[in-house]
Amino acid sequence: MNPYSTYGKLAPSQGAREQEALAFRLASRRLTEARDRTERNLALNINHEMWSIVFRELNGPSCLLPDILKGDCIKLAYWSITYSTKAVLSDLPLNPLVDINNAVAEGLEAPGIAPPSLARNASQVGVAACA
Question: How far is 63 from 58, CA to CA, in rounded Å?
Fold first, then answer.
């Protein structure tokens, strides 16, 4: 399942945070279930694109995160983008990407106080951003 094709087709009762968490979970599933080089590269491409969206949103004027948290998220996005690219070119293990995606999803799914969503333009690209 492609996280891009799922976003925006979820139940109206689901909020942006739930959709964002689902996108990260689906990207992780693609990485975990890749059985050959073609599926692996497709999963890495999806992961790269998703984190590129996060990176753009974090650097955009609509990002409302505090500067310290924003900086940490930018570093995480940059690392994920870079690692995804390196993994296409070599046989790096995919579990670090899966672990990060799942940790972000868990954070988005956690109840309580949370930073505002950055996914203002997510419907244009099909995946929500890190919040």
Answer: 6
Sign (positive or negative) of CA dihedral 114, 75, 68, 95: positive
**128 band by pLDDT with thresholds 50, 70 and 90:** very low
User: Using an 8 Å Cβ cutoff, are 3 and 104 in contact?
Assistant: no
Q: Spell out the domain ranges in the chain.
A: 14-125
Structural element, H or E, at residue 69: helix 67-89
pTM score, two decimals? 0.76
At which residue do the structure tokens 């087709």 appear? 9
Whether pLDDT at 38 is above 90: yes
Please tell me the distance from the alpha carbon of residue 15 to that of residue 13, in angstroms, as a whole number.
6
CB atoms inside a 10 Å sphere around CB 66: 9
